[in-house]
Amino acid sequence: MRTDATGRMLHDPKGGSFWFDAGALCLDFAHTGGEGRYAVFETLHQPDDLAAWLAVPPLAASLTVAVTAADLSAARELRQAIWVAAHERAAGEPLGAGAVAALNRFAAAPPLVPELAADGTASRWASPVRAGQALSTLAREMIGLLTGPLGGRIRQCAGDNCPLVFVDSSRPGARRWCAMERCGNRHKLRALRARRATDD
């Protein structure tokens, strides 16, 4: 069980992939798919997809109770609430009542419970490990992020039409891009072309 590393590989349905670290696991979770025009990015198609995502570090929640269709539906609901709340905070807008209610409802459920291994040098999640507990843990993390010292550092990528959100935990608070090798480099390339066009 690790809680000190975040980030996932994101895949573009048009081709290509890149490493994106949203800076918080709950925000990584928000980027597993979406509604409307973001449905093309969906990665949680089946209950097993949710189980696989939760089992990856840093959460490393290897579920001991099978994920159900209802769990998957709940996960998508929580994901949307995190997505909406993050974008509202990034835009400097008040959080909508719907997102707040959903986050509070999921957080009210029992979370994952850490358990010390017999040797006292490692920990795991106490069994049984259910999807609902993992969702509660993610909701609690999002609430902590929104109300904590980095609550004002939730940002949307400055790239053109890039909807990805992240928490800027850099010391100067100067992070602008979802990933330098993606939107950062695209911006540099456009700026270079613009300068060359001006010079000609």
3D architecture notes:
This protein has 200 residues and is mainly alpha-helical. The protein has one domain (8-153): Jann2411-like fold, CATH 1.10.3300. Helix content is 43%, strand content 10%. The strands form three sheets. A two-stranded antiparallel sheet has the order 1-2. Strand 3 and strand 4 (123-125) form a beta hairpin. Helix 3 (69-90) crosses helix 4, helix 3 packs parallel to helix 5 (131-147) and helix 4 crosses helix 5. It starts with 7 loop residues before the first strand and ends with a helix.
Number of helices: 6
Total of domains: 1
What's the CATH architecture name? Answer: Orthogonal Bundle
Reading off the top of the CATH hierarchy, the class is best stated as Mainly Alpha
Count every beta strand, where a strand is a DSSP E run of 2 or more residues.
6
Measured as a percent range, the helix fraction is 40-55%
CATH-assigned fold name: Jann2411-like fold
**Integer-rounded radius of gyration:** 18 Å
Tell me what portion of residues adopts beta-strand conformation.
Answer: 5-15%
What is the N-to-C succession of helices and strands?
EEHHHHEEHEEH
Cα(first) to Cα(last) distance is 57 Å
- The chain-level mean pLDDT equals 91
Structural class: mainly alpha
- Broad shape: globular
Biggest sheet, open or closed, and with what strands and sense? 2 strands, antiparallel
**Low-confidence parts lasting 5 or more residues at pLDDT below 50?**
none
Q: Please list the strands of the largest sheet in the order they lie side by side.
A: 1-2
Organism: Actinoplanes octamycinicus
Domain Zinc finger CGNR: 153-196
InterPro entries: ABATE (IPR010852), ABATE_dom_sf (IPR023286), Znf_CGNR (IPR021005)
Protein name: Putative RNA-binding Zn ribbon-like protein
